[in-house]
Amino acid sequence: MKSRKSMFVLFTVLCTLSLAAVGCFGTTKSQIKAKDIDAALVKYEGTEFDPFKDKPLEFEAIGVKPVDDFLMSVTKIQARFAYLKQIVTVTKENMKKEGFDKAKAEESINCVKSLAVGVVKDVPALVNAGTQLVTKIQSIVTNPVNIPKIPTIAKSLKSSVESIVQIGKDVKQIVADADDILKVVGGAAAEAAEGVEAAVPAAPE
Q1: Could you identify which of 65, 95, 103, 200 might form a hypothetical disulfide with 188, taking C-beta atoms 3.0 to 4.6 angstroms apart as the criterion?
Q2: Distance between CA 27 and CA 30 in Å, rounded?
Q3: Phi, psi of 60 (to 5 degrees)
Q4: How many C-beta neighbours within 10 Å does residue 17 have?
């Protein structure tokens, strides 16, 4: 139940943070696919490991490039985290089922760990970029039509920074859960390798 609640909260963040600055702006909407988030996630798109399978992820640009670029980056790292959490959660559930494929699970969880490293590396730079935008927002938003919305944009940027900081903390639990899963499935690759070695004739002495 806690896991489902966490996913709901995450989806709420994904749907609102990047759009909070929109208000009455003219916006440009685009759909974000797995290939836009990370090439390693393409094979999971549309599967049970896809957190956006039932509701595609969309992004709305407000027409202020520095802000749009930042919020797009935020949306992508949030989406990456959503995928990592989904893969771990579904794998845990599948481990209880008959016919659970340990080898495939190991492959997926190793992918989670690899992508988690990237998330951890990206967090500090994004936090810094967002903080800088907040301090410079008065000079960045120059269109007279958008100027009245500066407080709304600044609030959205601050919320986005806070969400990134939280992801940096939460991803540690994802890695811990992934490690726990690997303790169970980690022998699959070794067993497969042993099977291959057994099938190969020994070299003559």
Answers
A1: 103
A2: 10
A3: -115, 115
A4: 21
